[in-house]
## 1
Amino acid sequence: MLNKRLQFIGFDKALKICSILIFFILSGCPHNTIQHRTPLTFSKTLSESVTTDYREYGGFSIWINCNERLAKATYTYIEADKDSYNRSQTKNYYLDNRFNTNCNQLSSKTYQKTLGDSRKLPPHKHFDVGHLVNKNHLDYSQRYIDESMVMGNMHPQVRLFNQRKGAWYYTEKLVECLRQISPLHVWAGVIIGNSDADDYFVNSHGVKTPSYSWKLIHRTDINKIQIFVMPNSHTSIAENIDSYVIGYADFVLMLEDSFVRELVSRYEKISADINTWVVEGHNTLMCEGIVTSIK
């Protein structure tokens, strides 16, 4: 039967049809092949009952839940191999009064000043002003680095979690290394949770201390995502990073805001890799045979 059909439509046409069929078989469904090799754009209208303040800066965007005065989602697009500068911020932490001031934190002072000298306190009371969008990911522009110091990009972050041995620091190193391989879409945010035991900054800054921080990394070279949800704790260390990698469905269940679920819903059909993407080193980094450095 097949030979008769080939004779009827002609060999050239049959070959073309076969080629098209093979392409679709290998490619899979169209929504699994969209790789977004340019920055995403967003609508300011989100389906959320709480007041949500969308703020766009150079190189990154943030969405603040104004009831909590914290960014529940941030986004930055990082081009491949765009890491050839050595810059640091020239601006201190600041409040951005160009936007809805009712959504701002109450202070741009460090969180630790509220608690006092960390040398006299236990590790769970050592807090950094934690970036959601890391300033080093924006090191191709001095203005972008300085803008990342806005308090809307900050949250109370336990110091050991944020610094060299911490799980959050691991994800920052991972982005720095993977950017040498592929364009990246990087999302991050916080989950407040139900505990108020560590809400030390409600009076000083108007914010609760998040129980968790999350990060979603989309690699466009392999069109896969990896999602980390990590406790904001001094026990949240890089050695435990494997236990913080979760699938998309579990991730969405943990999110507190419907507008965040709406923002990340674009990744529902993209494969979530649950095998931890590995980065080694500190100042000099290595991932998948690529060697780079944090400048």
Note: The longest strand covers residues 70-78.
## 2
Amino acid sequence: MSLAASPLRVTKGQREQLEAWSRSRVVPHRQVLRARIVLMAADGVANQVIAERLGTSRPSVLKWRARFEDAGMDGLEEAEGRGPKPTYGQDFVEQVIATALRPPADGSTHWSTRSLAKQVGLATPRCIGSCKTPASGPISPGPSSTGAIRSWRRRSRTSWACIGTRPRAPSC
């Protein structure tokens, strides 16, 4: 049988927050798991037992236990640098969105993927047409355009991946 490590010190406020996360149906599962790990560690349960009960590995239990000891509740958040790196910078993404929210100069009512790609300097319009704002569907100029940029900023980083894949080669 595994020996229990010393119980984690958890304040009353932290315990309440962790218990809320562990019962939540809207918090991501990984955060629920981390909350349960910390709660069981605070109760003095052995690391191996925690891993077996929660269906995870002992190194994972040790990792989240150490992160909580070092940084408290902030240590349970996702670390920076996870996931694919963005293809384009924030300035370029905002330029594409701002351009898409203005009416095209040729007098048409909507941007085509090709015309938008050409306007912002993309070699291929690969998936500009699939970019959507949360409420309004495909990007198009209109009365609700003013709030669309704010909506886009709130979306996850993965949404920016749909801007395109290659910048156009400089013309000589």
Note: The chain has two domains: 12-76, 90-163.
## 3
Amino acid sequence: MRLCPVHPGNPGRNIEGEYRLICEGTYSLPDFLQWHKIRDLHKIEACRDPPEGSEMRQRGGSEQPVKGRRTTRPKARNSLTIAPSIADLQKQVGALTLELQEAREQQTATADVLKVISRSAFDLQAVLQTLVESAARLCDADMTLITRQRDGVFFRAEAYGFPEQFIEYSFPIPVAADRGSAIGRALLEGTAIHIPDALADPEYTFTEGQRLGDFRAVLAVPMLRDGAPIGVIVMTRKEARPFTQKQIELATTFADQAVIAIENVRLFDEVRTRTRELTEALTYQTGSANILKVIASSPRPRGVRAPSGPHP
């Protein structure tokens, strides 16, 4: 441990009484106090760390850099953080509020549909009608309908918002699994079909129905049971405005709820049919047993003996 001038390379710049403390090794504070008088501590200037990538050492009374070794002192990073403005914060709050409102509306609509399913488990038309109305409101659709099977053939059934002339024209027509309509493509491919503009789609051939319904954008989501479609839920808009991915996912949720409602009615019909068959069988057996009982208990004419065993 020793003192050296503050400017060893330029003695002219040195001021009398200014020194820099050079430490070699490890020292404690008592060692330092013994080495130097306390009254001279105010003259000592703290040395800065040597430049990165070099190490300073004393050679012949001057400090020279020793190349080839880097210090482990981490670099200081200049980080510039800009506080968000009030307008940005208001925009974020507005977006979060809108998202929360949409989530609440979706949850309420889902709860309403499930409530109708539980209360009207055997009134399928009422359940599906509530479903199409909720789907149109939450997915921002102008018109909605459901296509389901009847005797193995698909027909358009419950609808919301469609004009009467469209219903009279399209409902009696069976829906084929082809690419001529959004419903046909959903039945054919088993996935959601999104047509941003039916008039601009060269494969769309359900032109008369499109004219009567006066719609442009179409979204058709199949209602799948064990991977096979049992119907399709369709949403349309009068303008060529595509549905968002979030709305497509929401429509898929409504399609799943429609499957639940249809399956509940189907299972109930199966149970009711089975119960009726068992009741009819039990009634027949009971009647046969009563007839045999009457025959066994009826009196026989005189001179007629009941057979006692097999004849030889």
Note: The chain has a mean pLDDT of 75.
